[in-house]
Amino acid sequence: MSLTLLDWRRRVARLYAEVRSEPDPAAAHDHWRRTRDELLRTHPDSPIPQPGRADYPGAPVAAYDPHLRFEVTVDTDVPALHLEIGTGSDGIVPFDRIGRAHLPGGGDLDVWWLGSYGGGLFLPVKDATAGTATYGGGRYLIDTVKGADLGGDRNRLVLDFNFAYNPSCAYDPAWACPLAPAGNILERPLLAGELMPPPPAG
Q1: pTM
Q2: Helix, strand, or coil here: 148?
Q3: Residue 84 main-chain phi, psi, to 5 deg
Q4: Strand (E) positions, the chain?
Q5: What is the domain partition of the chain in residue ranges?
Q6: pLDDT digit string (tens) for 69-90?
């Protein structure tokens, strides 16, 4: 842990607070895209390998699609499920399923709670475009311990797939990231959010 990583997390948390406070989701998405590109290009804790940062063109992001924004009630009537996922510097990370999100148009996604100190909500997604148009390991939609929180209330979550973003390991294989487990894999395509990252420079 370093003060630069603390700064990264503060900036990400501030960005998502600005996203939640913007009444126009498309404008919020544009702000999110531009700010995230700036962080990826310039921040010392960017997952972009150092040699490629200065010339990084920005993450390819699909145009905003309002039909892929949902507010869903989390179905908590699900059997308990516990996962332990090995990562790099974070070691073994425990997750417990706390519910399921039933998507309009079809498909369900497990909603996870990080079991480590402080906790946090985690919702990865791997859809039918994974490995072609989007990163093969899937993407993250919500990761509140890292500041990625699109809003909601005590029972509902905002799931806006236009904000799906690539995990750090999509940019640099030196990272080891929790990827979408079986309950977070969809058969339907969700061509929204960050797309397949460009190959590393050089």
Answers
A1: 0.94
A2: strand
A3: -125, 120
A4: 69-75, 82-86, 92-102, 108-114, 121-125, 139-143, 156-160
A5: 57-184
A6: 999 999 999 999 999 987 666 6
